[in-house]
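Lab notebook, bench 4. The sequencing result for the construct came back, and we need a structural model before the next group meeting so we can plan mutations. Quick request posted to the team channel:

Model the 3D structure of this chain.
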Amino acid sequence: MTALTVRLPVSPRRDARSTLPGAKNRVAPVVAAIDGSTAGRHAGDAAVRLAVELDAPLTFVYVRRGPAGFFGTPVFERRLTRKMAEARRVIDRALRRAARAGIEVEGEILEGSPRKRIVEFADDRNARLIVVGSRRRRLGRSVSRAVARATRRPVLVARGAARTA
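Done. Here's the predicted structure in token form:
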């Protein structure tokens, strides 16, 4: 498992509440799964709006699948480096957007199955809400549908603006 945490400073309006792990006054965060796609961007924007309305901290989660190890060490390392750089860019963009809204925000990069890791992360953080994006899938499984089915927490599936012809 790989994890990278980035935290931005707490906004002034949160200084009355403790944000330390295990604190009694800790507010359950909104967890938003992002991936750099348009659907992920919509999920991030919806999560920022919800966190502002709920006055809750926000945690962005980027789940990456590890590169196949059968390519050999040099190829594996180059792909891993490229994937981690992409994940950091996506998280950094989302953190900047959320920081402009004045909310407490952090970002995590995880490795593994997106469905499993998002649900596990939300359970570990005792999230009040999970926000995921929705894409049209022709082949393969929908991560948003799998997350909604696998968790007992509320899930918001964010969709982009409707197309007009």
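The beta strands are 4-7, 30-33, 58-64, 105-111, 129-133, 155-158.
Will bring this to the meeting.
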